[in-house]
Design goal:
Keywords: Amino-acid transport, ATP-binding, Nucleotide-binding, Transport. The chain contains 23 helices and 20 strands. The chain is of the alpha/beta class and about 600 residues long.
């Protein structure tokens, strides 16, 4: 096995007739659990290959192995005919393999243009005169000292290179038009989730990589935003960019990819042209499980394939869920809501308000993020907070958790004002969170993550009982209790985030995009878990969810935010059929979707 200490990461050269990337018999286990088993693939120059499969199928582990973030147990990875198996991520980046991440990783306090400029580092030559020494820890101070000096006292070559860098950064920002241009000097943490993803894609591509690896690049984006990114990726493909793509949105895979690999249980279960793979019964079963149509009769032949293939399409605010499989949780609960006679607000007589916001204003510097927001969350109810990206949903949640302080307005929990109460005291009072992108402690085990959620508990015996209860609710976590959380699939990390929140015995859980990046089958399971928290445990839920139809299918009441203002509110069953929800949800993108 090749390691970074044995070979210099010189740019790979080879026979142009060979595949650019070749993977043979790649395998990886975590504490005896097989995550990837005997994976083979060839990626030609200029080709786009998509990897699909349910959560936990081994997709992200496969690209982590290819990109050098994990070392394989066995198998071989070749780049232009040269073995690069086991090279660390830094060396793979020098070889021209650039990537984005499943949950998005930008430098939060750096501006958009500074984030993108970081990606240009691989192309620096004049400002990295001793770049070959960077990989030797004992000599690393030499290139660092040289780069510092050349930054302070740049020569003509360094100035020309800095000009090329500025031009390349501007070109990447221009690729996303005014989506990023108007925010170029803003800190990345102030951006909407979609714009953080765009920034990350720009940072990965500015290095002119030989292979661009994208791990769920449109996760957390609505339909119009996904269409925009798809168009930009199609432009990159037309320019000859080689890409390896992990994505759950089958329509995007079919529009962009030349070949598709489907995985389940760490193994490749199908490969070929996109439409052939998405219609494969094995792939459909892996994504959706064994389901039946509306008449409960077995499906067979082409009707079976077509019905299940349609169910693979993503559900978005602009796409009703009427065609979704009737056995799915979302559809069942929506039907239940439509049959209900209870259309009262969550503050109806006899229903206790657990948490309330009254006239809350929040600003990021001169920019007002929330404008006189008022809402109510009842005891034992699910309230959905809807809106497009940058509408103020996550800001509302952060304000409730005490991570942001309102300039005006009040927040009350069970009648007691907590407007300026520290976050730790709010957690002790019964408020927990399942944050966007899960935010598990990657280097800690599953059980250590769960115990972190129990910091408000003092009795050891109670913590042990709670752990047993979590493992009973989420058997997959019990199987992986000693495994590092960062090696879990997206779905398993979502289970862990739920379990960690429950360890604090919450009365209210704030959930930010809990279905983001999950396969259709796992989306159903997450919705079932959310409904059970209300129905079985009596926990109140504030649900921020990009998939509006799904959120409203299990909610009791909903609020629609647009530009920091509450534009609509009402019982979930009414909002499900209100055209104004779609307009507010898509916002500016409705009229500018071609941008």
């Amino acid at each position: 096995m090749m390691t970074g200490s044995q070979h210099s990461p010189e740019p790979v050269r080879g026979n142009p007739d060979q595949p650019l990337l070749s993977v043979r018999d790649l395998s990886k286990s975590f504490q005896g659990l097989q995550a990837v088993a005997d994976v083979n693939m060839d990626l030609a120059s200029g080709q786009v290959i998509g990897i699909i499969g349910p959560n936990g199928s081994g997709k992200s582990t496969t690209i982590n192995l290819i990109c050098g973030f994990l070392k394989p147990d066995s198998g071989q990875i070749s780049l232009r005919g040269r073995t690069v198996t086991g090279l660390p991520a830094t060396d793979m980046a020098e070889q021209g393999v650039s990537r984005t991440f499943q949950n998005g990783r930008v430098f939060p306090t750096m501006s958009v243009e500074e984030n993108v400029a970081v990606g240009f580092h691989r192309r620096l030559e004049a400002r990295r005169p001793f770049r070959r020494l960077e990989r030797w820890p004992i000599l690393r101070w030499i290139p660092l000292l040289a780069q510092t000096w050349l930054t302070l006292v740049p020569g003509p070559a360094c100035r020309r290179e800095a000009g090329a860098e500025r031009k390349a950064v501007q070109s990447e920002i221009d690729r996303f038009s005014e989506r990023l241009e108007e925010h170029r000097t803003q800190a990345a943490y102030t951006l909407s989730y979609a714009n953080r993803r765009r920034t990350e894609i720009a940072r990965a591509h500015v290095s002119s990589p030989d292979i661009l690896v994208l791990d769920e690049p449109t996760a957390g984006m609505n339909q119009s935003e996904t269409a925009e990114v798809l168009q930009q990726l199609l432009e990159l493909k037309a320019q000859g960019q080689t890409m390896l793509l992990v994505e759950h949105k089958i329509d995007l895979i079919e529009a962009l990819c030349d070949q598709v690999i489907a995985m389940d249980g760490g193994r490749i279960i199908a490969s070929g042209l996109p439409r052939q793979v998405s219609a494969d019964p094995r792939v459909i079963t892996a994504y959706l499980g064994d389901r039946r149509p509306r008449n409960d009769a077995p499906m067979n032949g082409q009707a079976d394939v077509l019905a299940r293939q349609n169910a693979l399409a993503p559900v978005t605010a602009a796409e009703p869920i009427d065609g979704q499989d009737p056995d799915s949780t979302g559809t069942r609960l929506r039907a239940k809501a439509e049959a209900s006679d209870d259309e009262g607000k969550p503050t109806a007589e006899g229903e206790r308000t657990l948490l309330s916001l009254d006239g809350v204003d929040v600003s990021y510097g001169p920019v007002k993020a929330l404008d006189h927001v008022s809402l109510r969350i009842p005891q034992g109810g699910i309230v959905s907070l809807l809106g497009g990206n940058a509408s103020g949903k996550s800001t509302t949640m952060k304000t409730i958790l005490g991570l942001l302080a309102p300039k005006e307005g009040t927040i009350r929990l069970d009648g007691q004002e907590i407007t300026h109460t520290p976050t730790k005291d709010r957690v002790r009072s019964g408020i927990a969170s399942v944050p966007e992108a899960r935010r598990v402690f990657a280097a800690m085990s599953v059980e250590e993550n769960l115990r972190m959620g129990a910091f408000t508990q003092r009795q050891r015996s109670q913590i042990e009982q709670d752990l047993d209860a979590i493992y009973e609710r989420f058997p997959r976590l019990a199987e992986r209790r000693g495994q590092q959380a960062g090696t879990l699939s997206g779905g398993e990390q979502q289970m862990l985030a739920f379990g960690r929140a429950l360890m604090s015995h919450p009365r209210l859980i704030c959930m930010d995009e809990p279905t983001m990046g999950l396969s259709p089958k796992l989306v159903d399971q997450v919705l079932e878990q959310i409904a059970s928290l209300r129905d079985q445990l009596g926990i109140s839920i504030l649900l921020v969810e990009q998939q509006a139809e799904l959120a409203l299918s299990i909610a009791d009441y909903g609020y629609v935010l647009q530009n920091g203002l509450i534009r609509l509110e009402g019982p979930a069953r009414q909002l499900l059929n209100d055209e104004r929800v779609r307009q507010a949800y898509l916002g500016k993108a409705t009229s500018d979707s071609g941008r």
